[in-house]
């Protein structure tokens, strides 16, 4: 990989799942670079995700909201930031169905504030978007970057709005931006509200696995490491103003994913319970990733390996997730699953 000149990054949402994996990866690959993590530390943002790195002179933390323009501007000016990488977001579809407004506050307005600061201070912005902006994809298609956006959940709609604001700023003001649209990521430090960590930790605890509807929905479960190398590729070699899909280009059904989790953890498949479906559940996501491959990137993991490796990580790192599952997470779990599991079928 080409070496960058020393560069100062503001990584928003760097204490979350993908952000913390990206910070760890980036610091290893670019030891000359300085990284400032800017994070509100919501329930999903955990300082301990980077516990091994806080002693580094090249890493610091600013606790703040991306919607706070003065605080974002100050963090950029104080640290001579030349690149903002925006991971900060509310990220869970089910939470967006229970309480959607914070998704607009952070994902739309927060991204807008970052764009304003980037414009004012002439800073490049790389925005992390998602395959969910394309909406549900019919069986004979893979989304390409020029497809129309057709989001269907409050989460996806807020991400689509952010994605389009970033593109609008590039067109209107000519500010240097790039966007990556990631597939469903799996790997270390993913908050256990998402399917793979939820199913893995439930299986380890011998609790039921709540599969929404028939479980035949399709997702591209990509290893977070490959997302990080994809973002790095775009930061180093991407064309300014362009959008790049990042995934494996291969999907599996949720039932196939559950089988991998249960087989990896050597657990009984009778734990699977089919529960009431998520409203508006997107049936299939699928992306064509040729544009990123053309920059020389390729994924290291196939989706089956990625899911199995993630499940193993939860088995080996109980000290990370046990305190989460016994804390505030319980209240959410009750709200989301108690009734569903009470009426569950096999
Ligand atoms: P996450 O929920 O694990 O982490 C989000 C982080 O953002 C947390 O550290 C949180 O504290 C921080 N944050 C939230 N609101 C904030 C605010 N107002 N100001 C500052 N910080 C705030 O999320 P993730 O799964 O790591 O996702 C990171 C990004 O990648 C998001 O933009 C998400 O939309 C996108 N994405 C995620 C996936 C996936 O599978 N998880 C796939 C594609 C794209
Ligand atoms: P999730 O990890 O929430 O990602 P997304 O909805 O953003 O793709 O869910 C992945 C898939 O797993 C999705 O099809 C919904 C399904 N799912 C369940 O069947 N049960 C669950 O409890 C959860 C959280 C998800």
TrEMBL record:
Gene Ontology biological-process annotations: nucleotide-sugar metabolic process
A Pfam family this chain is assigned to: GDP_Man_Dehyd
Documented EC number(s): 4.2.1.46
Listed InterPro entries: dTDP_Gluc_deHydtase, NAD(P)-bd_dom, NAD(P)-bd_dom_sf
Residue intervals of the NAD(P)-binding domain: 10-309
Keywords for this protein: Lyase, NAD
The keyword NAD appears for this protein: yes
Regions that span the bilayer: none
Keyword Zinc-finger appears in the UniProt entry: no
Superkingdom of the source species: Bacteria
Catalysed reaction equations from the record: dTDP-alpha-D-glucose = dTDP-4-dehydro-6-deoxy-alpha-D-glucose + H2O
Co-factor requirement: NAD(+)
One MF term in the entry's GO annotations: dTDP-glucose 4,6-dehydratase activity
Family statement drawn from the similarity comment of this UniProt entry: Belongs to the NAD(P)-dependent epimerase/dehydratase family. dTDP-glucose dehydratase subfamily.
Stated name of the protein: dTDP-glucose 4,6-dehydratase
Organism of derivation: Deinococcus detaillensis
Source lineage: Bacteria, Thermotogati, Deinococcota, Deinococci, Deinococcales
């Amino acid at each position: 990989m080409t070496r960058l000149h020393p560069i100062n990054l503001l990584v928003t949402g760097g204490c979350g799942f993908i952000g913390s994996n990206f910070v760890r990866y980036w610091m290893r690959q670019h030891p000359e670079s300085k990284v400032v993590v800017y994070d509100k530390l919501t329930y999903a943002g955990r300082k301990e995700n980077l516990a091994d790195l806080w002693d580094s002179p090249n890493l610091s933390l600013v606790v703040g909201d991306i919607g706070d323009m003065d605080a974002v501007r100050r963090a950029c000016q104080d640290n001579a930031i030349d690149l903002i990488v925006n991971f900060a977001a509310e990220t869970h579809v089910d939470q967006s169905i229970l309480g959607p407004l914070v998704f607009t506050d952070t994902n739309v307005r927060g991204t807008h504030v970052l764009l304003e600061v980037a414009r004012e201070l002439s800073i490049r912005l790389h925005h992390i978007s998602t395959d969910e902006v394309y909406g549900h994809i019919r069986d004979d298609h893979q989304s390409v970057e020029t497809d129309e956006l057709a989001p269907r959940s409050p989460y996806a709609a807020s991400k689509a709005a952010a994605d389009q604001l970033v593109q609008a700023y590039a067109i209107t003001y000519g500010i240097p931006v790039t966007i990556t649209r990631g597939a469903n990521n799996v790997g270390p430090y993913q908050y256990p509200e998402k399917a793979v960590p939820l199913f893995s930790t439930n299986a380890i605890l011998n609790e039921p696995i709540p599969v929404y509807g028939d479980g035949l929905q399709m997702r591209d479960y990509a290893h977070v490491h490959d997302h990080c190398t994809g973002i790095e590729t775009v930061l180093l070699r991407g064309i300014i103003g362009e959008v790049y899909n990042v995934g494996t280009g291969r999907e599996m059904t949720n039932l196939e994913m559950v089988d991998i989790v249960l087989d990896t953890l050597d657990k009984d498949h009778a734990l699977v319970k089919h529960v009431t479906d998520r409203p508006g559940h997107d049936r299939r996501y699928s992306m064509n990733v040729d544009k990123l491959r053309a920059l020389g990137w390729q994924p290291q993991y196939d989706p089956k390996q990625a899911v199995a490796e993630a499940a193993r990580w939860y088995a080996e790192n109980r000290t990370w997730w046990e305190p989460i599952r016994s804390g505030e997470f319980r209240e959410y779990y009750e709200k989301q699953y108690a009734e569903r599991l009470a009426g569950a079928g096999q």
